[in-house]
Amino acid sequence: MPAADMTPQRQLDYAYLSNRIGDDQAARQAFAAADAGGALPPSSLLDAGYTSMRTYQDDEAIRYFSRAIDAVNGLQLRMEPQMVFDTRRTVADVSRRWGVLASLTMRNGAGIEPGFGNVGGAPVSSRTTQAGVEAYYRPRGYRNGKFVELFARGFATLDNDGAAGFTGGDSFGAASACAGSR
Asked: Could you name the domain of life of the organism this protein comes from (predicted)?
């Protein structure tokens, strides 16, 4: 733990030393102290952000990353365009708490052609339309990629113009679960 009477520049040095030896919590506190003292240069914002992310401080990490992007836009920090994109992508990933995915699919002429593994030339489906939706929520946030998601999904056949039901009739399926990452 850094001493409270350290200068902001010494706090920054301590943050990098702590980072180097793998003490993310001490590094996070030292980066915050250096920042509060005005000694956190734009070139250290990403380091502070990733340190905050590793200690599961999502909101703090987002603030550091956003400040780095602002510093690039304000010409106070140089970053390659790919790095700016990656930083924006990280902000999006870390800040995402919930989402919804929807799909609508239609197949015309789907099925097995007659004579190719088909039972005695049985008719094939001429059209199938399906819709689906999935929603998820991360109750504890991103947590450095170790998130838990609660999700629910449902899919339904809206139209099934198959001959003699060989592709199945109209249907609805739903599921819900809890999944973790890493």
From this structure: Bacteria
